[in-house]
Design goal:
201 residues; alpha+beta; five-stranded antiparallel sheet; 4 helices; globular
């Protein structure tokens, strides 16, 4: 987990959900890039973030994309966030004896546009709280920021502001995550994606 670093947050709002991640790609204290993708779309209304070893992030992103496509072909319908979370969990649990060094975070809206968030550990144990989830090397700092800033029933713009402030201020206290961020706010009308500028030191 500490080899590449990273920070991911997902938060619930009123009829919307947001997921945010930092953009740093590094090897321990050495920063190699500032545009590394850690959050990926599964469907139009489901996004997942992967914190952990960069090679496993890319491997799992492709594996989940393939499994979602196969589900779509087999079932002839879009996968729901809860079903997607269980698919991710079982994929991780399959390799529990030599597992992926990745901690997924999932955010999405279901068929009734109810927000759903969850995260899991390296072998797929799911946690589904009613407010927010965090993962990555900065998770202790992110917990503190989210506890301070999150409120129930946030509108999309307020949710964006809350998750952005939590991410930027959380990663300032972690040396191996940060260097900017990206936020996806998922609403029934569509996805709002914004890139954040952060400290570059």
């Amino acid at each position: 987990m500490e080899y590449n670093g990273g920070a991911i947050i997902a938060m619930k709002g009123k009829g919307c959900v947001a997921i945010a991640a930092d953009r740093r790609f590094g090897v321990q204290a050495l920063t190699l890039g500032t545009d590394f993708q850690k959050v990926f779309p599964a469907t139009d209304k489901i996004f997942f973030g992967l914190a952990g070893l960069a090679t496993d992030v890319q491997t799992l992103a492709e594996k989940f994309r393939m499994k979602v496509d196969m589900y779509h072909l087999r079932e002839e319908r879009e996968i729901s966030p809860k079903t997607f979370a269980h698919m991710v969990s079982s994929t991780l649990y399959e390799k529990r004896f030599g597992g992926y060094l990745c901690f997924p975070t999932i955010a999405g809206l279901d068929a009734k546009n109810e927000p759903y968030i969850c995260n899991m550990d390296g072998i797929g144990c799911i946690t589904t709280p009613n407010d927010f989830v965090v993962s990555g090397t900065a998770e202790n700092q992110l917990y503190g920021m989210c506890e301070s800033l999150w409120e129930p029933d946030l509108e999309p713009e307020d949710l964006f502001e809350t998750i952005s402030q939590a991410l930027l201020n959380g990663v300032d206290r972690d040396a191996i995550s940060g260097w900017g961020g990206i936020v996806h706010v998922i609403t029934p009308e569509g996805v709002i994606t914004r890139t954040l500028k952060g400290r570059m030191d």
